[in-house]
Amino acid sequence: MLKTLYTIFGIGVVSLYTVAAMLGWEISGGSRHQLPPDARQNGYRSFHFWHYGLHGGK
Amino acid sequence: MSVLVANCPSCGAPVEFKSGQSIVVICEYCRSAVARTDRELKDLGKVAELVETGSPLDVGVRGKWKDVPFELTGRAQLGHEMGGQWDEWYATFANGWLGWLAEAQGRFYITFQYPIPEGVQVAPFDQLHLGQTVHGLPWPTPLIVAETGRATALGAKGEIPYLLTPGETYYYADLSGVDGAFGTLDYNQSPPLVFLGQQVTLADLGITTTRAPEKEERRVGAAQLSCPNCAGPLELRAPDKTERVTCPNCNSLLDVNQGQLQFLKALEKPWFQPLIPLGTEGQVPEGKMMVIGAMARSVTIEGTQYFWGEYLLYQPQIGFRWLVHSDNHWNYVRAVPPGEISESTKSASYQGKRYRIFQDAQARVECVLGEFYWKVEAGEQVRGVDYVKPPYMLSKEVSTVYVTDPRDAARTKRATGEINWSLGTYVEVPQIEKAFSVSGLPRPSGVAPNQPYKHWWIYKFWLAFIVLTLIVGFIAFVVSGSTKQVFTQTVTLPPLPNEDGTQVFFSEPFQLEGRRNIRVVGESPVQNTWVYLEGDLINDETGVVQSFPIDISYYQGVEDGESWSEGGQKDSAYTSSMPGGRYVLRLEGQWERWQQPAVVTVTIEQNVAHGFNLLIALIVLSIGPVIMLIYHVGFERRRWSESMFGGGDDSDDDDD
């Protein structure tokens, strides 16, 4: 039972690492967002947008 | 072809010497031992009737040893001074050899007489001790003394190659060596006669046709007898081998002699109840065997008495084996030749494996039930030494008794005895239950001396996964190619409007490739101050934003005459790959010296070799094995806490 569990777990970890290596995944502290469509149309370079618009600001 | 045909000097019946090497022939009619001299035949006296030992051999049986045919031409039955008997068969070979085939407890040993090499003095009998190596014998490997004793010629049949005198006694020492080597020193004369050879099977001897089928049938069957004390029915399951039996009706201890029962003494009501009833048949690794006896034994260590149970298994074709039940752990035990084991102070070696000493104590028989092949009784003591290498346990039992030679007028006591080695293999309780069709056997709670640690596999699996992960990492590194710089720019950010203010920079668009990780490196020539940048990679086409922090701080100084530094003028952030496309870098900075501008060089690279994922994968894979390692250490500590020799910190056992 334990043998099967560890085998499945190990294969999972190695597979995940393989996929990460193939696709360039990294474990990082940064977050990923999506700019609202109107922000891209209206320009997103304003201080106001970054501090009060995007997800409530930073 | 007969060498000599004459008449028995006792009864006148014809006697025939078929072999020129035969000295004595037993008259088939009157059982007289008839010796031939250079002038006449001489009657040496009558031999006793042979005890039925259940031997598969008989006079006239033919075989082949080292490609030389032989025929069993004689048989002598010898009595042991501690009771019981064994057979010696004489094999006359076609090339003139004369072999001695000893048979005891279902085992066979073929030996040939060797002259003692010139200049070699074999120790006299009274200077031999058990376990001693006998030097100077013409044998390639060392031989140790495994048994000493006195034999008495009881009965005989056929032709005997020496002057067998009925009732004559002589001292002997049995020797044992590696690869089944076996020998006997026969102290019937001085210097002793030396017989050397090895343990064999009937197949080794090319013996396929053994004794008559009706005898064979009788041999394997049980004997129905009556107890001489209470007249209750009593079944002997190994009638040919049993020396002692307890009556299941009145609990008397009975001596078995040639199928006759003799009352020895009444035993107390047995407090020991076998977990596997006597008479139960079970499927053990070597075949089907029956439990014919059980006993409780004990050792006393530091004032505490520890008990365990032993079950004697028997099957005519296999011989005797044991099941040992201790602290609800079970072992399947078989005898091994003493000469196969080399022993040092704290360890013993057998078949290339080293066993560590675990216990050395005096073991005592407390209670007996059923049949035994030696004259056992409560109170019998042996020195028992256990060596372990899970799942095996090598046990030595040294039994020494002091006997008096009836011919010795001074009645001097002399030590005699034997060394028995056995190899136990740990068996799980469910296997015992299945093999003997019993249920509800108690489960063990502690760790047995030779209980194998079950989870060795995890270290092998762990190693396999680690190697696999490293291989994947290496392949990924080779396949992905070199690091590519996609953007670099030195930016001078103007002074901040106030201490809490920020300055923002947007780069010109640049291209990022998909499926490639990203590293952003920020550098600033800071000295004893800091610059903090909030970065964003913004996909100009899709609006995907990846944020990352860059924290540059560098401090240095001299304290107590020693220079020190902390941090660096460079910091980097890794992010996962982003969809391929056109990106803009946004940096929003703050720094300590806000009244001054900040100079920052930002570099963006892709396809960067980064070991962090690999490290995480290795750590995650190691969590399970580390937990199991902690458990393993505790397991070994519990095992060795029961040993009088302790020190179980290096676990060298196997799982297979």
User: What is the radius of gyration of chain A computed over CA atoms, rounded to a whole number of angstroms?
Assistant: 20 Å
Quaternary organisation: heterodimer
Q: Give the percentage of residues in beta strands of chain B.
A: over 45%
Could you tell me the mean pLDDT of chain B? 88
Categorize the overall geometry of chain A. rod-shaped
Mean pLDDT of chain A: 79
SSE class of chain A: mainly alpha
Distance between the termini of chain B: 56 Å
Count of alpha/pi helices of chain B: 4
Structural class of chain B: mainly beta
**Helical stretch tally of chain A:** 3
Q: Uncertain runs of chain B with pLDDT below 50, 5 residues or more?
A: 212-220, 648-656
Uncertain runs of chain A: none
* SSE arrangement of chain A, N to C: HEHH
What's the structural blueprint in terms of helices and strands?
The complex is a heterodimer of chains A (58) and B (656).
Chain A lengths: L1 H22 L8 E3 L2 H6 L4 H7 L5
Chain B lengths: L3 E4 L6 E4 L6 E3 L5 E5 L4 E6 L15 E4 L2 E13 L4 E9 L4 E7 L2 E8 L18 E2 L8 E18 L8 E9 L3 E6 L6 E8 L12 H8 L2 E4 L6 E4 L7 E3 L5 E6 L2 E7 L14 E4 L2 E15 L2 E12 L3 E8 L2 E8 L4 E3 L3 E4 L2 E20 L8 E9 L2 E13 L8 E15 L1 H8 L20 H24 L3 E10 L9 E4 L3 E3 L5 E6 L5 E11 L4 E16 L2 E7 L1 E6 L5 E11 L6 E9 L5 H30 L15
Antiparallel strand pairs in B: 1-2, 3-4, 3-12, 4-5, 6-7, 7-8, 7-12, 8-9, 9-10, 10-15, 11-12, 12-13, 12-31, 13-14, 14-15, 16-17, 18-19, 18-28, 19-20, 21-22, 22-23, 22-28, 23-24, 24-25, 25-31, 26-27, 27-28, 28-29, 29-30, 30-31, 32-41, 33-40, 34-40, 35-39, 35-41, 36-37, 36-40, 37-38
